[in-house]
Each structure stands twice: as C-alpha cells, then as structure tokens.
User: Fold this.
Amino acid sequence: MSYGHTITLGLPFQDAIARVKDAFGAQGFGTLTEIDVQATLKQKLGHDTDPYVILGTCNPQLAHQALQLEPEIGLCCPAT
Assistant:
C-alpha cells in the first residue's frame, strides 16, 4: 500500500532532510514541526529503527485559503 510519493536522493540522511526543507522553502512552505520517529521509538519503546523523520510544512497563504473554504481541513495541517 502506498501512502505517499517517494524520491530517493543519493545523499546522507541529514543532508537529504536539509535539501527537502530548502525545496519546500523555495515554494513558500516553512517547516513547523520535525518529528524524529527513530529517536522517539528508541526513547519510548527501546526499539532501534532506520532513520525516519516527519516534517510538518505549511504555506500560510494556502493554509488560510483552505481554512476559509473548509475549517475542518485544519485536522490535516501540522499547525495553523
């Protein structure tokens, strides 16, 4: 089952995160949240996993427009 779109970058993990943030920034999106899933699972459950980071990004203008049309869309936003 596929939940998203995958692009493989030939970069070290932290460099890829920086590149993705830069690409989103160039399109007017800021990073509001960054969840280190690997660290959280290690801390909470003691499980070792592959590097995994969730970036919550937002474009304020687009978020505002969406919320004006459909207030419940905020449930899908990282923060408004």
